Design the sequence.
């Protein structure tokens, strides 16, 4: 009896197809993108422009410090990260017109129907050279979250919609009414005096 030969498979085209499928999936799939902090830097001063030191009233500044052990101080008191957003919101709104919290200046916002009391509050973030990146980002998130919540509340009160659903013109009004004034100092040893 003779042995039967089994027909062989042509695997050369299979490898080509696998390679093409791999290329296809690499081209159409989305990769996670790393996103950084959104900050708008001030415009560069002109060469001939004289730089004036801006004087800011002490009551209009809250200093948020992160030390090398990732502990947070808001003002002069230690605070947990979970309380930071509410502390900043209270600071910026000054609901009881406390003389130790920021002043409010009535401003005529273009497109808004009346003068609106805008807080002069500035958040000064200072971190230590030994601060972990995780703690720094967590604090940044809480500060921005506080401003975003205030803008949402403004949008709901005056336009009946949260900030994200406002028109571009209404968002500009909300941004003018609730400015995001976050100042970042160069890292230093904040635990030392």
Sequence:
């Amino acid at each position: 009896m003779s042995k039967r030969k089994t027909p062989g498979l042509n695997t050369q085209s299979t490898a080509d197809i696998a390679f093409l499928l791999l290329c296809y999936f690499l081209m159409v799939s989305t990769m996670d993108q790393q996103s950084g902090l959104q900050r708008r830097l001030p415009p560069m001063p002109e060469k001939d422009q004289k730089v004036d030191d801006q004087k800011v009233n002490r009551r209009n500044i809250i200093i948020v410090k992160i030390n090398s052990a990732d502990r947070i101080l808001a003002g002069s008191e230690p605070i947990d990260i979970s309380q930071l957003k509410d502390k900043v919101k209270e600071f910026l709104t000054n609901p009881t017109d406390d003389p130790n919290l920021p002043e409010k200046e009535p401003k005529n916002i273009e497109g808004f129907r009346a003068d609106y009391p805008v807080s002069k509050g500035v958040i000064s973030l200072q971190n230590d050279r030994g601060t972990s990146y995780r703690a720094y980002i967590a604090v940044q998130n809480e500060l921005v979250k506080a401003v975003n919540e205030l803008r949402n509340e403004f949008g709901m009160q005056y336009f009946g919609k949260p900030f994200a659903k406002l028109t571009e013109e209404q968002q500009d009004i909300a941004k003018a009414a609730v400015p995001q004034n976050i100042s970042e100092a160069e890292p230093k040893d904040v635990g030392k005096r």
